[in-house]
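Thread: Newbie trying to understand structure tokens

Hi all, I'm a second-year student working on a class project, and my supervisor (Dr. K.) asked me to get a predicted structure for one chain before our next meeting. I've only ever worked with sequences, so writing a 3D structure as a token string is new to me. If someone could post the tokens and maybe explain what I'm looking at, I'd be very grateful. Here's the chain:
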Amino acid sequence: MARDEHNKAAEHHENAAKAHRSAAEHHGKGDHAKGKEHASAAKQHSQTAHQHSDEAHSKSQQQK
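---
Reply by user tm_fold:
Sure, no problem. This is what the structure looks like when written as tokens:
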């Protein structure tokens, strides 16, 4: 169902935002290794969210 995919996408978008904020905090404190680690996690969450968004869009089109 498209709704499930939208929920999954939203969850990953939220996780990406949290990881971005954490990365910024670590970079601000000079802990660039941890900042890079959180930035990589944010990127992965963003990519996964995009995949779920595409799937939700595809399923929505099929229901029309």
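A couple of things are worth pointing out once you decode it. The CA atoms of residues 24 and 30 lie 10 Å apart. The mean pLDDT is 92. Feel free to ask follow-ups in this thread.
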